[in-house]
Amino acid sequence: NRISIIGLGYIGLPTAAVIASCGKVVIGVDNNQYVVDTINQGNIHIVEPELDLMVHSAVAEGYLRATTEPESADAFIIAVPTPFKAEGGEDHVPDLSYIEAAAKSIAPALQKGNLVILESTSPVGATEKMAQWLAEARPDLSFPQSYGEDSDIRIAHCPERVLPGNILQELVSNDRVVGGITHRCSTQAADFYNIFVKGECVETSARTAEMCKLTENSFRDINIAFANEISIICDELGVDVWELIKLANRHPRVNILQPGPGVGGHCIAVDPWFIASQAPESSRLIKTARAVNDEKPSWVVKKVKKLVAEVLTNTDKNEDNIRIACLGLTFKPNIDDLRESPAMEVALEVSKVFNSQVWVVEPYLEELPESLLNFGTQLVGLSKAMEADVIVLLVDHKAFVDYPIQIGSNQRALDTRGMLKIR
Ligand code: SAJ
Fold first, then answer.
1. Which residue in 107, 291, 329, 390 is a FRET match for 413, CA 20 to 30 A apart?
2. Which residues pair with 154 in a beta bridge?
3. Transmembrane stretches, by residue range (predicted)?
4. Atom of ligand 1 at shortest distance to CA of 258?
């Protein structure tokens, strides 16, 4: 039982490590030589709690090995990125070129009886396209889209659904949606996941599995957009949104999510566009939610400017000695990931205006990204930041929530995460 994982990133590497820890031989494939070398030395190139130990022991015990060239295996899992590309004046079109390249790279290694699973988040129909690319590359083998249940190769889509920061636990405990091109493809894929998944593996079609993943992330995006819209309305009407949401959520059928400075990460801000690009006319709510969440960072920046103006009017501070502190840069708490981070967007915009008068506190970074350093923005400790005139709370890192933040009468605070109300 040899398993091959193509793409050793945030999903592929933890999946490889978990399967290897079940005593299966796993061959990880990545086209980045640095990633391959790092893993073969028993180290990791991404940050995820406890992953380093798991990879280290899987490599040391000989269950996990990385390479740049695909080799023969019983099952192939494709976990490569699906970003956007601009096409015909339209942006936000899913880019399947990584899936295509991965399919073409494994095609020569395929053997009769193999299972190929696509885990990358994909637009509806991508698994069928992948099957087509494989069939074109291997005319000597039969594939389920043409040969049905009797095909040589089985193909399924099983979207990953793990939460960064909690990947190792969720990989095992979450239910999996397993969508085969045929019924037998689903069953064989479900049998494979049962090696390491304790949650239920529910079988469906490939297209439904594709749409299921996109729907989950769009559901969350729309619900966060609702919270963000309510937070702006509350600000206009002088209502404390954090208290309001707690009260409304006491209703047995209401469960409002938390507002914030916007929606970041590489999934929730991306996947709704996969639906919108395939059904643009019908995706009205989905597109509006994207717009609401994308505009939230600019609203935060406007608020910061207002607070600066208030301090300038009410104190003896002037434009040259006023200080603004941004607490947090990552896209969510207690991780080091800056991808699509709204906090980063706010800090950048504020730095563009106030340059070296901006301080940033980010316990998960040793130095600031160059884009911020270019404006003269400084990385400072939390106690230093408390001396700033305007304090902008952007990420609810545990270190911030635990800190006794006191706002003096000459200071102003903008709490985008409800941290001050937690106490
Ligand atoms: N956020 C809010 N308010 C909330 C919840 C989240 O503003 O109430 C913000 C976060 O601060 C962050 C963004 O949303 O900026 C996304 O964070 P997240 O923790 O909700 O989700 P991700 O992007 O880390 O992971 C999501 C998960 N999807 C769902 O919960 C439906 C995860 O299960 C998926 O596997 C992952 O996307 C993915 O890879 O698609």
1. 291
2. 115
3. none
4. 8
> Cα of 33 to ligand 1 centre, how many Å?
30
Residue 325 forms beta bridges with which residues? 359, 391
If you compute the radius of gyration of the chain from its CA atoms, what whole number of angstroms results? Answer: 24
Phi, psi of 148 (to 5 degrees): 55, -140
Ligand 1 centroid – CA 313 distance (Å): 39
118 Cβ contact partners less than 8 Å away, ≥ 6 residues apart: 78, 99, 126, 127, 130, 155, 156, 157, 158
The first and second tokens of residue 411, run together, are 């200071």
Active site residue 384: no
- pLDDT single digits (tens) 346-389: 999 999 999 999 999 999 999 999 999 999 999 999 999 999 99
Q: Which of 23-32, 79-88, 121-130, 193-202 has the lowest mean pLDDT?
A: 79-88
> Strand 90-94 and strand 176-180: pairing?
unpaired
Measured in degrees and rounded to the nearest 5, phi and psi for residue 273 equal -65, -25
The sheet with strand 176-180 has its strands ordered as 64-67, 25-29, 2-6, 75-78, 115-118, 154-157, 176-180, 201-205
Give yes or no for a contact between 329 and 160, defined as CB atoms under 8 angstroms apart. no
Residues in Cβ contact with 13 at an 8 Å cutoff, skipping those fewer than 6 apart: 5, 28, 39, 44, 46, 51, 55
Ordered structural domains, the chain, with CATH: 2-214 (3.40.50.720), 260-422 (3.40.50.720)
- ipTM, two decimals, is 0.96
Q: Which of 158, 185, 201, 267 is catalytic?
A: 267
**Is-catalytic flag, 296?**
no
Ligand 1 binding site (Cβ under 6 Å of any ligand atom): 121, 160-164, 216-217, 220, 224, 257-258, 260, 263-265, 267-268, 331-332
Where are the extended beta strands (E) located within 23-130?
25-29, 64-67, 75-78, 84-87, 90-94, 115-118
Distance 332 CA to ligand 1 centre (A): 8
| CA 221 to centroid of ligand 1, rounded, Å | 8
Helix and strand totals (H; E) in the chain: 17, 15
Which residue minimizes the CA distance to atom 32 of ligand 1?
Answer: 163
